[in-house]
């Protein structure tokens, strides 16, 4: 099942709106790489009408050498809106009507990469309220924006839920990226990791046999605990070496 991830810029005093006014001093090459990886780990975007209007005024004419703009322009985009009927941005679909939540659930069931949402607002509240948001990436900027509209703060959205800290990435600029996941999402990741490890071990056990040799490098066999399969035949001593 696909995951829905949210990426939000936030100040120390909880401001999440108008990041273009207060994040410029904290942009760096390493943060740009994280942003690039984050986008390319997704194969769809989800957003509301407000974010759509901001993005469509910038990205269609944007270019960059790293393919970020091309990815933004070509990736499938889903806009939750009752007022947008004919989106002009390439590969954009409008989600409207009474079964928006059901349509988002169906998108999650499709094969593919993450579905990414930028910014924190009513769409985020909808996702959280219906248990659809799996990852929350808070880009915490080391500044206090100061006297702002209360509606600009993360708490104004009104969503209530518990999250589990999964990762912390610190940058030289003072920016800290905090990754939170729902406990259920962490459990799914853990199960998937165990299943991959079990499959890997069984595959080696099937292929890595004394009479058939081994197609895996020594390091792979050592991790899987299969070096004993390469011991010398009985009677030649216990110090046999690997065939690798």
At a glance:
With 244 residues, this protein is an alpha/beta fold. The chain has helices at residues 29-40, 49-56, 68-74, 100-109, 122-129, 183-207, 218-224, and strands at residues 4-11, 42-48, 77-80, 92-95, 114-118, 135-141, 164-170, 176-181. The chain folds into two domains: 4-181, Dihydrofolate Reductase, subunit A (3-Layer(aba) Sandwich), CATH 3.40.430.10; 190-230, no CATH class.
Write the CATH architecture name of the largest domain: 3-Layer(aba) Sandwich
Portion of residues in beta strands equals: 15-25%
Q: Count of helices?
A: 7
- SSE succession: EHEHHEEHEHEEEHH
Largest sheet: 8 strands, mixed
In helices, the fraction of residues equals: 25-40%
Distance between the termini: 39 Å
Q: How would you portray this structure in words?
A:
This protein is 32% helix and 20% strand.
